[in-house]
């Protein structure tokens, strides 16, 4: 039995909070509901844009700060390390100290950290601040969902939840759209100025329009902090392993192996502790159930295949010399596609359509990947409009139904399982994205080497076509390079560079094909799982019928 900390108002049955940690649901006038919806969008985008702006502009930040690729990768990694584990404490903080204090502290901290970014110029300080922003970013994303729930009557709770959890998906394409102008205004400081402005506006919004109160119960136990102290570094080391592995290369740096082993050890100790607790922070027994494992694997794969856009398409265009200015129109298309997917998911949401929406999202992502297969070095951002619009609709559709499927599974065992589900969802989405980038980057590099070797093996300077191409390259540098030997070497180097570019494009085509195959296999997986018992049942019935006839 939960121990209430404060007396709560007398609520009607339809006004009572869904559970401790959620606000009550009083009746609101239409204009108040609209205000809650607008605040939800503002706060949700604030929670997602902070990390999106850094990830999108990582090459720019790397150049401005003079960082190596490995050092620059710590900026988004630090954010993810804290963000992935923050909900372990954030949820219980809401339960014990209330919605309003949580909202004001969470967004107030975010605003302060965003302002501090403007006065920091060292990479080490920025990494620390990105980590701290991961905690406040998790609070902002949660508030976006809670405010969206207030914008709709309780009978439309499912649709409101779909909209609320999907808001942050709009952050990445919006970051691509806004970045060229922000960089032009103030280099990388322009990015943090915008983030600080968004955080201050969000803080003002939640102070002026407060969430209704909910139940406040005694939620924290002393061992919760020990569990967090074990889980947080375990998750952080795993994220560091995934973000640094394909940059340092997996087998070239022994520190990567130590990260992986330390992460596994800490996860094991944390699981052992939580398994033997009476009231654990993480419901390890529920996590070990088959249905939960199926959900986690499915959610991770679904997030994995969406990296076709943020890794495959983006990096291919970057390898062809396209910058954020050239890709800006493409990400307007992506943004519109995600909005269409979110709206379509919310409008068609219902108990009978949840699985249909998930399958439709997988199908659209797979179709998009096959559409992108066969790209050439002549393709430009506008050539990706149709395929990425299709993928964006699928990416916008899957998040809401995915949350509802997991939420129902967790809530069957009680409200105390919700914090475990929230952490599980955050882990699957963060690790799915990181594993997608790490795996596809490794695959792309291997395939590029293979294609480059194949291209070079067919290059024979004695052939007229190759000799003519070398002559053209030498003539192109003739006005600036007068030495014949140096001109010949420069022409050969440029031809090799063209070969590497073509090999890179072929490798990205392999990436698109791989994602399409994975999406197809993922789509067929539940069909095969369902077909197996059905086939066995029919065989058993046929065998029973044969034996009875004999």
Automatic annotation (TrEMBL):
Higher taxonomy: Bacteria, Pseudomonadati, Pseudomonadota, Betaproteobacteria, Burkholderiales
Chain segments annotated as coiled-coil in the UniProt record: none
Any one annotated GO CC term: membrane
Alphabetic keyword roster: Membrane, Transmembrane, Transmembrane helix, Transport
Keyword Thylakoid: no
Identification of the protein by name: MFS transporter
Gene3D superfamilies the record matches: MFS general substrate transporter like domains (1.20.1250.20)
Residue ranges crossing the lipid bilayer per the database entry: 34-53, 73-90, 102-120, 126-149, 156-178, 223-243, 255-274, 286-306, 326-347, 354-373, 385-407, 419-440, 511-531
Span list, region Disordered: 1-26
